[in-house]
Write a structure and sequence with these properties.
Blueprint (H helix, E strand, L loop, with lengths): L11 E2 L3 E5 L8 E19 L9 E7 L2 E7 L8 E4 L9 E4 L11 E12 L9 E9 L1
Parallel strand pairs: 5-7
Antiparallel strand pairs: 1-9, 2-9, 3-6, 3-8, 3-9, 4-5, 4-8, 6-7
Length: 140
């Protein structure tokens, strides 16, 4: 976690954690950022593209210090990027994935001592469909 004694050392940016999963299995969680210590999540984007059957929902699961948060989009539009957006009025397992990128007005989304990020999609029929997720993060 951040140290506030002097001199303060800011978090160090890391290479993006990235997943591109062809033919994802319905309801299976795919790890994008495996459990990592002392992490600040700067932003998360996810997208799904499909040929015929629309998958629903697209979900990003974030585990922070033993708490599970799920961001979802019920009817994702094919090929559209969705971003983790924190909605304080909603429970941690019903958070939002939005087409609005919050990076323009929010310096980071989450931080914690232990962080893991996963993504999944559910649908009736498996087809050649890439599921893509990117996590921008920094570490102390």
């Amino acid at each position: 976690m951040p140290r506030f004694d002097w001199p303060y050392l800011p978090p160090v940016h890391q290479p993006d954690a990235y997943l591109s999963q062809d033919n994802p299995v319905s309801a299976e969680w795919y790890t994008v950022l495996d459990t990592t210590v002392n992490v600040r999540i700067i932003g998360i984007s996810a997208r799904i593209s499909w040929a015929t059957t629309q998958p629903t929902p697209l979900e990003v699961q974030i585990r922070i210090d033993g708490v599970t948060l799920i961001h979802g989009a019920v009817n994702p539009v094919s090929g559209t990027n969705y971003y983790v957006l924190i909605n304080s009025a909603l429970a941690e397992i019903y958070q939002t994935l939005s087409t609005v990128n919050p990076g323009a007005y929010c310096p980071f989304a989450y931080e914690g001592r232990s962080v893991k990020v996963e993504v999944r999609i559910t649908w009736a029929t498996t087809q050649p469909t890439p599921l893509v997720c990117r996590v921008k993060y920094a570490k102390w």
